[in-house]
Amino acid sequence: MLNILSLIPGANWRHPNSHLQNAWNLSKVGILIFPIFPAIGVFPILAALIITWIKSTSEILSHRINLYFGLWSLWSIFVSLFAIDPCESLLGLLNFLPYFIFFAAYSVLIQTLEQLRQLAWIFVVSAIPVILVGFGELWLGWGGDLVIWNTPVHIWLVTPGGFPTGRMASVFGYANEFGQYIQMVFIFAIGLWVDTWQNKPSMVKASFANVSISRKSLKLIYLTVFMISCTIAIVFTSSRAAWIGAIASTLIFTVYQAWYWLLGMVSILMAIVFSSAYAPTPIKEPLRVIVPRYFWARITDEMYPDRPEKMTRMVQWEFAWKLTIDRPITGWGLQSFGKLYQAQSQMWFGHPHNLILMISSNLGIPATIFFMGLIGWIVAKSVILFLYFPIQWRHSLTIFFTFIIAFFGFMLSQMSNVTIADLRLNTFAWLLLSSLCGLFYQSQQSEKLI
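Below the sequence we write its predicted structure tokens.
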């Protein structure tokens, strides 16, 4: 098939299983297109899923974790029958059950560190048009429907000036969702930067100057510019979860690389910013002259002083916990929170801005413990696998470490916002989890992952 990824580093890497080569090619094309055109990119991703299931059915069924996700599915269907609106609850399971099928296939399709490296490069390349749309939306007034032959086609949710107003949202339609996406690709960019820095350079000749430039230098220049663009985008999402995720991932990588001088600089900068927000008055007042109000007012929520208390996350969390206590075994049903909260507060919020509280209030405590336990088991096995390798080999596993951090970043953001209803973000989250699980599967069969 036509290789449209030929300009992306590692695009010619072959799949270790020749029977899955077509599925791997299709998945790469789909993931490249998916962020900017999800309605198109979803088809090659699904095609890769189907091919993998056909070619590797016995292997998929042999993995016990898939059986456990199947049992969770049956339990969730059962408790949904006791929901206040069973039909709505069963419909809400579409945010979970199809992704178990996706996870089962892609955890077999993804088997090597080279595949993870290539996926990371595809993510940072496919994010370019998404970021550009975000800049255009905020500063050039881009937005509205795409017009084809004088006919509006509603395929993007781009709002001139951002949504909410003044916050960059790009094609994701809402700033928090875009913030979570851009945080993820920012982590990939850091990981690839470190991975590239560690590898030996190969030389290419730049014909326009007739000089030799290392591929390493070209990659580092691109990734540096990309990270700067991501940082600007993250700032203008005004998403506190994205800010925290980006800062935390930067600190983690500085520790990982033992760049303590950079760790010190970032820590001092963060200390100044947070002191301007929360320190005692004699300290924070002078700092607020230095630190832009955009940051400390957003951190303390003083940017929106007239916000009703019922719009705050704390009130929503308290209400979700009360729902959990009232129905601890079956919950109230998926997609029930919005109706119940509106009846109590006359305000609509589709979820309680916390994944754990959402599942516990919707499906009960047993379903929550089981679901989070399965995810925690996969992540724990991945961390153990990473730590298992001797320290002198650790540089070869930087990209694996990057995927672990990216998934942790996703889960961290789910503690203050729930984005599983977004097709792209939910798919990417399960893709990260599939990648970690796929590497763990292969480690059980062979010590050679590179």
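The first strand starts at residue 146 and ends at 148.
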